[in-house]
Structure formats: structure tokens, C-alpha cells
Fold each of these.
Amino acid sequence: MRAAYIARRFGVFLLILWLAATLNFFLPRLSGQDPVHAKLLQQAALGGYVQAGIEEMTREYERRFGLDRPLWRQYLTYLADVARLDFNYSIANYPKTVRELVADAVPWTLGLLGTTTLLSFVIGSLLGALLAWPRAPRWMLWLMPPLWALHAIPFFLLGLILTYLLAFQLPLLPIFGGYSPGATPSFSWRFVWDVFQHALLPAMSIILVATGGWALGMRGMMVTTMGEDYVVFAEAKGLKAPTVFLRYCLRNAILPQVTALALALGQILSGAVLVEVIFGYPGIGTLLFQAIRENDHFVIQGVVFIVIVALGLTTFVLDVVYPWLDPRISYRRT
Amino acid sequence: MSERFSPSRPRRREVIKAGLAAGVTAMLPWQGARAELPPVARNRTMILVWGGREGRWVDWDLWNPYSIGSNHQNGPNLVYEPLAFYSAFADKTEMWLAESFEFGPDFKRLTIKTRSGINWSDGTPFSAEDVAYTLNSLRDLGAKVRWGVDVQQAVAKAEATDANTVVIDFKIPSPRFFFFMTYKYDIGVYIVPKHVFDGQDWTTFKNFDLEKRWPVSTGPWQVVAASPQQKVFDRRAAWWAAERKLAPLPAVERNIWLPNAGEQQTAQALITNQLDAGAGMQPATFPTMFTQNPKIITHTGQNKPYGYMDWWPISLYVNNERPPFNDKDVRWALSQYIDRQQLVEVGYLGANTPSKLPLPPYPPLLPYFDAVKDLLAKYDTNEFAPKKGDALLQGKGFKKDTDGFWADGQGKRLAVNIIGFGAAGPAIGPVLVEMLKRRGVEAGMALPPDFDSRFQKGEYDGAIYGHGGSVNEPYATLRLYQGASIAVPGAHQANFARWKNADYDKLVDEAYAVPPDDSKKLAEIWRRAMEIWLPELPDIQLVQNIHRIPWNTTYWKNWPVAPHPYVNGAHWHLTFPMVLWSLQSA
């Protein structure tokens, strides 16, 4: 039954969360580093001068962060905190909380990677489908080799080239940043346009690279689908070509792409770190990268947990909506 | 029966619409959403790049400079005015919020007269109460906040005896306490507004609320916007220092701080006049920038070393607690294997100079270089003399093995694994390793993420690091090598080289008690200390640290360039307000 099916999937989802949260707690601690001490030393040494009292400060803040307590107690506190979605303070950026840091970063990552993932999926899938479709225009055949070649280039490298060409040599777009210096974030068209302009270069680099991959996958699926009996039957019935293309071929061929899209959307929270770094995009990938470098346990735990939830949730949603997308799949046990 | 025909299921269009709406909402950087700032022309705006983490300000809403996650380098240096500024380049102290100060005869009391008629930006008068409150709070908070332990070690109590007089009683003689509070480089005590900070938990208080116009300041800059993308300061219409002709009202009307997105992006933005100042850059980048935008200059114009000498001469530290580096002859042998000129040529493309002593040759320190000139001739810390190095190692029983590496009597190779960080490590580390290898030392190089922790806990063989010591007199540098102190009980000892010498320690304590302006007495102690230090060579002197900061003169001129620098030009240092009020429209 649908309710039992959903409950079972949800149970698996919770189990994955607990396992991942547990690993997430213990893995950063395996390094044996003392993040508070390291952070204070790094901070103190920023100006080349080491302030007095680093040891006392370390003890004070370890007590404050609960890092002076036995590991099992830290673990139980952590589980209770995670259940309330409270990830504590950032060790490296105290008194900023992990929640604040994530809230700062998530909109940028969703905005850049979410949009580009969806756009490259739509463009790539459509191109792939048309490439396999015998009645597609011939010029399309010329489009694919460059897209496949671009697919082999890491998008941060393409990003550097695009920046040089479109922002530096032909100053059409901004070189870096999320919006212009001096602009104020507001719900105005001017600001939205400003954000859009700044997002174009990183978005182009991701879309140009990713589209070829989606197209390649879709083309293969389309070729297989076009050989199915129901497609032959639809054509034999005299249905119009667009109907056969859209409703019989594309709709069925796209199912594995949707699975891949769901997983790709789940992964965007882990971010394209290098793209974010190159374009000065303050997303969640760079937040995690920095937290790992600083061994900031609480930020690592918070970000990784959110990534796990995102992945688990998209898988769960996919499990639930798949039968809705593909009528051949039923919630019932066979 | 399958439930796929359930009438309650959402329609595809609704799902798509909801998804699009959620996506668009999520895209907007809503965390800083507020009314738009009034526009300021580009030629009235100064835009710089500095700091941040991977292109983002993490501390954009953190304006309490004492919380441990805060860093005055990221903007608070414009907000909190000091009691005094000190420029080592000009060797000049500018009294600021303080008008004068006077120590008691035993240096256990300091009386500071603050200026009258100064207001915080919210209209509340600034007074001696703010100074006393700042010091007493730091004393009470100690290890919970930045600078707390430094103040706690010295201050017994601070009292405002009237609106413009602060009397500070010390636990121990503290002849350098006013200089400690004075802004120079990265050291100084930020005077906070009592009416804002009182009753707050200093460890978690952020001091950021644009509606209340926090942070308040006595200075000419008001924070008007802050987000992970940028920090924006607008010039206030009135500023007490301009009214009293102590400084001009800055010509810059808006100052925007962008987080550093990388050297290439910064260079491109400078070339295209989108930026007025960049963060420190590698020497190789400068000729390209000069060619493409002749308006870009540095402290030394468009000539090498493309910057000014920082207060942080760089050394190869070797761990004096670990054999064989606990032997001064081994340390000297390593020093004599290093060709510093080649290090400069290869590591910095010629844009640097060797360093002879662990303090910079700033004007007020030159007499101290002169005081040990004969010692430096005898113990030449820059000498490249591989044969002398060989002789020193042979004298200690080292012989070259079949692979050409030095090995001791037990066949153990002379190996030095060097750790480094920041810009200096990658720039000179590999060159240094190759030089040592060619002389038979089994050297290696790593840039570990926990460099600071390893280095300061003494978990290293060799390390590339600088000296945050003296800028005007030698005590601070002498103290970097002190193993224990009687004069300053419980004092934190840096002693990164982990070198110990009881006679040297006594001399440093002796220097502590000497007033900083008694240069004759200090020079005499300095020389006696160097008579111990130089033959021992606790760490191996390498090169100067150069701040290579690109400045764009398209919109702004009067940057602090040689040969008449009014102050060091780093916008992350506490003295940057002096640069800002000196800039003139181009």
C-alpha cells in the first residue's frame, strides 16, 4: 500500500541519517587535532604577533564548546542537537553559529548550482533527444561534438577562460562576486538583474560543461526507446511526429535522466568548490572546504549533515514520485 | 489496485510552479536585504580587496573586535579609534583620543589625559570612562577575549578620575603599556563605547545592528552595509579630528571592502579599474599589471621589490630542542649552506633582500644595527660559505655517505623536514630544500594545514616563519627568544626556536625595566644580548617580508609610497585610517 511503502522508505531515510550523523561526528575527530587551539594560534598569529594566554583561552573555549567532556557525552549532546537542527557555534568563527553560516551560503549555492543543474538538464536532455530523432534538423549534428568536447573540460578551467574572454578582454560581464560593489541586496529588479549578470559567467561555465553529459545520456536512451513496440505502434496509428516524440519517446526515455537529476540536485549542496572559489561565489562548497581546512568540527558536522539530508531527501522523494512519473511502476508489491 | 489515479495528487504544473518560485526565492541573497544605499560616484569611492575566506566575508556581522572569531584586519580597524597611532616609517607617534600620558616614577602608574569634546557617532560623548571600562573589562575577562590576558597580566585597575583623566595602576612595572595600547601594525587596544558594550557578553556580542547604526565610532567611518559579499563604510559628515585640524576629512566618501577572490581576479579587476587596492601579490604578477595599466603602482613605484618591508623578517627556524639542531655548529652550517641572494632571485624574482637580524631595519631600529656591526662582521648571518659549513659538520663527526648526504657516527642522516605556510613557505621553501640537498642535507618541505599548531607546540624540525617583534626599540624582538621571565610573572613566551639561555633571559628582563625612549641603555643591553645570541644563532636568518600591495592611481593618489612614506600602507593594519584620510582625488 502507498502508506506502508512511504513509511518503509521514510524508515530507511531515518536510518541513513543516523548512520551518517554518527560517522559525521567521529570522522573529524580522528585527525587528533585540537581545533580550538589551532584556531586561536592561527588567529593570534595573523598579525605576526602571538598574544598572551593562548593555553588559557583554549581551555576556556573547549569548556564552552563542550570539547572537554568525554566523547560519549559529546556524542549524545550532538545527537540531541542534530535532532533540533542545532549545530552549535562555529569553532573557527565564534560567535557565529553554524546555522548562520549555512544560511549565508545556501542561497548562493542553490542559486548558482541549482539553476545551472536544472538548465543543463533541460537543454542537454532536449538536445540529446533531438539528436536521436531522425527528423531533427541536420545542423544539430554539428552541435554535439563541441558540446562533448566541452564536457571533458573541468568547469573551473572553462570558467577561467570565459572570465578572461568575457570579463577581462571584452568587459561584458563582472569578473567576480555575487553582485556589484556598493549594491544593496533588495527585492528590486535592479538588484535581481545585477545578481543575474554576476551569475552568468559561472553559470555558463557549468552549463557548457554539463550539457554534453546530459545530452549523451539522453541520446542513448532515446535510441533504445525509439525501438520499442509502443513507439512503432504510435507511428503506425498515424500520430503526429511531435506527439510521438514528446509523449511516447521523450517521456519514457527521460526516466533514468530524472533519477540522475535527483541525485545531481542532492549533490549541489556539496557544491562545485572550485567554481565557487574562482568566481568568488560564497556558496556552501567553499564553506565546507574551509571548515575541513580549519578542522571546524561543528561546521563540518552541520554542512555534511545537511548534504546527507538533501541527498537522502531527494532519494526519498524520488522513490515516492517515481510511480507518479512512470505509470508502469506501482507502489504495490508484486 | 494501484493508486496512481488518486485525484488528490498534485498536478505537474503546480509542482513546476512551486519549484520555480522556491528556486527564485532561494537564489536571492536575502540575508542582507534592506533599503538601497544612496549612490556615490566611482571617483569618490575607494574599493579594495582583502581577506575573507574563499571569496566571502564570514565575519560580515561581527564588529566586536574582542570576540575570538573577530579580526580587526577585516574592517574594525576603521571603526575603533586608538589612544594614539604610531608610524614606524616616520618614527612618529600621533596622539589621538589621548592628548597626553605620563608614567609614575616606578612605571606602576600611568595617567592618560583624553581629549574633550569627542562624541561617538550616536551622539554620546566619548570620555575617560570608555578607556577605563575597556581596560577593566579586559582585565576581568582575561582568557575569554582577545588581548584579555595581555591586559590582565599588567593592569590592576583603571579608574576615570574625571571625564578626561584615566589612572591605570599596574601589578608590575609596565613602561611599554601605552605603546602596547597604541595602534601600529596589528597591535593596539581598541577603545569600545561603554554605553553600548556595558551589560553585553563580550564573547558573543556582535555589535552589529544597522537600524541602531551599530557599530558606533568616534572615527570618520560609518558601517552602512555588510554581507558575505562586501563591507561598506560611508564617510560621516562631521569628524572631531578634522574639525581640530589633526587630519583632513577624508576625500574618500565611500570605502568598500571586498573579500579576496584570488590573485588573478584581483589583478584583472585592478587592470580594468574596478579596484583601487589589492591584497598582497606575488612578484611575477606586477610586471603584467604595470604593462596593462600604467596607473598601477606599489610602495616602490613600478620597481622591485614592489612593496615595503614588513616588520616580520623571515627565518628558517630549527627546533633547538631536537638533535642535531640543538648544536649551534649544525645551525651555523645550515646557515652557511644557504645562498640568500639566489633565494631572492629564484624565490622572489629578485624582489626582496636578505635579512641579517630578526628585526626590520626601520629608521628607529638602525642604531641597534649599528651597535652590533662588528659582531655581525664576525658572525655574518648572511654568509654563503659551504666549505665553512662542511668543516663545522665534519668537526661534529658528520661524514658524507655513499649518496652524498651527511650522516653522523651512527649513520643517521642529517635531515631537516621543513614546514611552511602562507606566501613565504611556497615561495622560498622549495628553493631552500634544493639548496640544502645540494650541500648534502636531506631536506624536505610540506605545507601542513595545522602549521600554526605544530610550529608553536614545537612539533617540527624546520619551519619558515617570521618575527613579530620590534618596530621602534629592541625589547619586543629580544623577548621572542626568552625562555623564562622573572620581570613579567606568568608571561607568555613565544620562543618558537625553543632556544634556552639563562644569561640571555636575564638581559631581556633587564631590558623590560628600561623605558623605551632610553635608547642608550637599551643599545647597551641589546649588544650584550647579541653577544650571546649571534654565536648561538637560534634561528637562521633568510629574507625580509615584503608587503606587495598594488595601488591604482586612476581615482586616488597620495598613497604612502617611497621615498616619503607617512605610514605602512597595508589596509589590514590598524594604521590604515591614516592612509584613508591622506588619499586625494586623482
Note: Residues 504 and 529 of chain B are 6 Å apart (CA to CA).
Amino acid sequence: MSELIVTKDDVDALARYAGLPLSDERKQAILPILQSWVPAANELNRRMAQDEVREQLPCTIFAFGNRG
Amino acid sequence: MDLQELTLAQAAAAVKKKEVSPVELVEACLDRIEAVNGKTSAYISVFADQAVQVARASEAMMMAGHDLGALHGVPLSLKDNVSLKGQRTTAGSKVLADWHPDEDATVARRLRSAGAVFVGKCNMHEFAWGGTSDNPHYGAVRNPWNTDKFPAGSSGGSGVAVAARSCYGSIGTDTGGSIRLPSAVNGIVGIRPTYGRVSNHGIIPLAWSMDTAGPMTRTVEDCAIMFNVIAGHDHRDPVSSQQPVEDYTRDLRLDLKGLRVGVVPGYFFSHLQPAVHDAVRGALKKLEELGAVVIDVPIANIEGNISAQLTVESVEPSAYHQKWLRERPGDYGEDVRALLETGELLLATHYVQAQRYRALLRQEFLEAFKRVDVFICPTLPFTATDVGAMKVVIENGQEEDMLSAIMQFTGVPSLTGLPSLNVPCGFDQQGLPVGMQIIGKPFDERTLFRVGAQFEGATEFHKRAPGI
């Protein structure tokens, strides 16, 4: 699978969806972080979508009577 | 008596025997802060007059036969994201530059109740979101072993304050490694407790599902003494555990014969600077000499933990900071602002899959703990880098991003909620400290202190002092 490369247009769209006003300078500042993190996060997404972990629940921070 | 060279345990014992006054201890710490804080920027606030006043009262109470507890008259510091009633608590930020909480954090209240005297609040990475303590508002914290080097973070000020002998212990907070990393890089001891073992009430959060608080000290015994004071259920923290507490000093002198030490093959000793590799391998050999048995224990899904860590540790703070980030974006330092903006743009599925991965990794470690008592690995793969560096070279001359690189080993306990203890285990060729991380079963901090204390007793690394 060819890996996504995050672009400045992607940052622009995501920031609009998030309601986060970002100047061009701010978009440029976070672009390299997203370019590094998103492919790794997508790789983890693919792993966690496999059949063998289909039943895996997410961890939560509810602690009812924790005697753990 | 050289007061600055006393351990916390020795200082507390000397006060109880009336061999030394709390006033003398506090004045020794304040003198030391005066001498070194200009070079290290370890403290944001120093309570010189108030600490002396409290120490005088503490002395009077001891002389009158009123012993407040294990820390009576002992000077300590707090990371500046831990609330102290009436005292400025900034979290290393401009956003909270003038915030004065109206109550103590639970950890501060418990320490105070046990007789501790607070001498100041320590500098840190802004809002604890980073591993360098290069703070744009209160100055870059500098390592006492070499002030051109960083102290790691985010509890960098606490690590430096303890290593530089300006207090007998400090409280740090640890989300992705922020107690263990500065403990390793400054050559001291620090514990990240089991998630929920120590109350987070009154501590400014970073990432709720991973946040913890714990002691940073010069010796393992000191760490266990402080841990005894702060551990335990707190109804004001909704995730505080009801698991009963233990005496964490009880097993410090118990030998290691037959103790099973796990190592994850292919992960725990790969991608390291040679000095770190050699020091931690040497530590394992020493533990074997002490009677421990080292066992390879594979963890099938250990790869991927850094991505999960970055996702959770960025998304949760971005939720907490959402209002301030829109109203006062210019009040954040550049690196933290960029991380908070980034955290808003990751997808919900990235976050949930990271949380599912955490549960999977935790199950694999709990299963592995049927075969071993502890795991041991380096705390971080490199020794202190230059102040201000955003990249680090670990092997093959290749530069890597600091934030990802620094979490290589500390992310595992953070994601799984397991306790872990940093203990000094060597020095590199420049004389910079190396730390090893001992990871334990949930609520088994006592075994971590036992292993750390036995190793410490058989080595000299903790006895070296920085030359500052």
C-alpha cells in the first residue's frame, strides 16, 4: 500500500474541520509533525483492524472499585 | 556534618535525633539554590523566607516532642504543575503565569502532613508537554553534570534540583516518561507509580489516561520513604485506586536470589548509544551476580508503542487546551503550540486504535509477568544532548526527532499503566549519567524498590556528585 503524504492542503482541511484557525505559518510549522506521525498512526490503524484483534476493547480510565 | 551530602533518610533521621535542626537543613538548601540556580534555572519559585519560618516551627515542634512524621523538617521541592495553596503555580507556562491555587494538591498536602518543608517549585517543560525542559518563559533548565547539556523532561527542574543537592527530594509528574527521563539524565532515582496509585488531584493534567506523579530522589531508600507518604486512595481523584498500600521500604534489604528479570529480545537492546548499551548490559550482569535470573520474554506487539504514545499524548492535551489555544495561542512556546495544534488534527480513529493497542500491549505484558518478576531495559537510548537540540544521534550518525527517540522505552509503562523505576547504572565517556528502567507488575512498587536498592547497594554510581 502506498503511504499517504500529508500536504499543506490536508492541514488546511483538517484545521477547518476542527474549527482551529491557523495561519499559513502555523500550517507550515505543524506539517512536518503530521508528515511524520500520520503514516505511523495509519500503520497502527491497519494492525488494529486485523481479524486477530477484532474483539480488542480500547482501554478506558473508568476504575470501578479497582482492586487490580 | 556536610548537610548537602546527606540523603533524605539521613537528614530525616538526624532531625529526629535532634542532631540537626530543620532550620539548618533549609538554610543549606537555600544556600545551594542561591549558588547554582543561576546556572541551572531549576527553580521557578523559591520560598526563602517562608521555608525558614516553617523550619523554625518544625524545629520547635520537634524539640517539644511533636514528631509530624517520616519527613519532619526535610526540605523538598515540587514540580510547578503541582498546586500549592496560595503559591504561584505556572506549569511552566505563560498561560498560568499568575495562577495561585486555593488548595494544595493531594501529594503536597500529604508531604506537608508528614512534616516536609517546601523550599521551592521547579521549572519544567511547558505544561509537561515535551522532554527537554527547554522552557521559553522561565529559562532552559541545564544539567548539573554539564550545563551545556539538557536535563531531559518534563520534570527537568526537579531532576536538577535533586542532583545538585538543593533539596532532598522532589515531586515530578510522568505521562510519557517525565519522571524517569530526567532521573536517568541527571543520575538520580525516580519512580512512575502504577496508574492510580498516587493521586493526581490538584495537578495540572497533560494526558488524563496516562498522567501520574511520583518522587525523585538521590537514593532508592529515599524514594521509597517519599512513596510511603504519597501513595494511597484519594476520593478527590476519580481514577485513584482503592488497592491497599504497603510499606514500600519493607523489602529494601531482601536479596535477589531467584528473582526473574525479563528482557524483550530485539527491542530492549537495539537502537542504543554504545555507552547506554554497555551500562545496562553491565547492570544485568551485576543483577545476575546478586542471584537474579535473566530471561528473554518476547512481546509480540511491542513495535508501534511510540506511535500510540504520540497519538494519545497529543490528542488528550489538545482537548484540555482547546479554549486557551484559540484565545491565547501566542502565550504558548513554539514547540508546545505546534504539538497542541497537531493533536487537534489527528483522527478519532487514530486515537481509538491507539487506545485499543494500549489494552493489547497491557494484556501481553500481564501475561509475560507470569514468567518474570520485573522487566529491565534502558530508560532512554542516549545520554544528555546539548541544550536546545531538537534532534539526536543514536546510531549510524543519523539524526532523529528528539520527541520520538526519547520515548523508545518509557512509553511502554506509560501506555500499559505499569510502574517503573529509574536507577543510575553508569556513565558515558563524557561523564554523563546512564539510567536503567525497572518495570513491574501493577501495584508491585515494593519489588521495584527492592531490585533498585539491591543494585544500588552493590554499585557506586549513585555516590558520584555533579561538579557544579
Note: Chain B has a mean pLDDT of 97.
